[in-house]
Amino acid sequence: MSRGPARAWLPARTVDAVSPAIFSSVARAFNHLLKPYPARDLPPGEMVELPGRGRTFVTDSGPRDAPAVFLLHSVLTTGLLCWYPSIPALNKRYRVITLDHRWHGRGITSPGFDLEDCADDVVALADVLGIDKFTAAGFSMGGGIAQLVWRRHPSRVSGLVLCSTGPYFSTHDPEHRERAQRTGRFLAPIYRRLPRPSEKSLNKTTSHTSVWAMRQFFSTPLSHMGDFGDGLGRFDSRDWLGEIDVPTAVVVSTRDKVVEPERQQLLVDGIRGAQRLEVDGGHACCVLGAEWFIPPFVEAVDAVTVGERQPAG
């Protein structure tokens, strides 16, 4: 697949990932919950057992005979909270699956947090759903998970869409990782005093979007920030990026201060034939102002599934 020209789109902002400015990251995510993209046509979900692994919350929407796209979310969000603006646009011609990653929302709880486990969970879910091959699309942390899905299960991945992400994360730096650990320790007693969203409230999509988003956000234990930082810090795909042999599109947020554009460009340069598309915004381009993220994202999904998708109708 030849590298296409960069496409420029208007600014967009959304929920953040773990960054060196860890408190700013949480504050940004919280602020975006107060002014979110309106929630419309949210797909229903259910708890799904992954044999030998645990239970996680899953949504599965769109035509069952259409190409499958797994949407893999960023840190401190959930499958729906990260991706709900984009799902309706994809559902026109794709089968779209989200899941809550480990220790996020209603995801699997395990002794530790590792992106490799999250990648294996994706394939385990595909097995349960009877899906052989699929496109793995990830935002920030989810982009790392998507790369690992290909690395660990290359025969299952037909394409990659990597958004606002890179071949490593900021907590690869031991100093940044220690900062995440300190933040987790600081937040632990605070989180213990916060009321937990109930299963019923998490499923209540008739609430105002801000209320629904707030419940989704607080369903992830902020006390595990240190674990998230460790898991992100262990990820580094630079040594094997050149081995990726499936169609890949990289959606670059050009004003990103969390995963800077230069780091995102490493994916474009390192993956043979990768196509670059752009959003003129920061590390917040899938919820608030999502109307500007959705066009290049859908174009990216289309680009890596040419010949597989069915026409919208």
What can you tell me about this protein's structure?
Helix content is 37%, strand content 15%. The protein is an alpha/beta fold. It has a single domain, classed as Alpha/Beta hydrolase fold, catalytic domain (Rossmann fold, 3-Layer(aba) Sandwich), CATH 3.40.50.1820. An eight-stranded mixed β-sheet has the order 1-2-4-3-5-6-7-8, sandwiched between helices. Helix 1 runs antiparallel to helix 8 and helix 6 (174-193) runs antiparallel to helix 9.
Helix coverage percent of residues?
25-40%
Looking at the chains present, what oligomeric state does this protein adopt?
single chain
Total DSSP helices? 11
Going by helix content, strand content and strand pairing, the class is: alpha/beta
Estimate the strand proportion. Answer: 15-25%
Shape type? globular
Keywords, please?
alpha/beta, 313 residues, globular, Rossmann fold
Per-chain topology:
Elements: H1 22-34, E1 45-50, E2 54-61, E3 68-72, H2 79-83, H3 87-90, E4 95-99, H4 115-129, E5 134-139, H5 141-152, E6 157-163, H6 174-193, H7 199-202, H8 209-218, H9 225-233, E7 248-253, H10 261-270, E8 275-279, H11 290-304
Parallel strand pairs: 3-4, 3-5, 5-6, 6-7, 7-8
Antiparallel strand pairs: 1-2, 2-4
Helix pairs in contact: 1-8, 4-5, 6-9
Brief summary of the model shown:
This protein has 313 residues and is of the alpha/beta class. It is 37% helix and 15% strand.
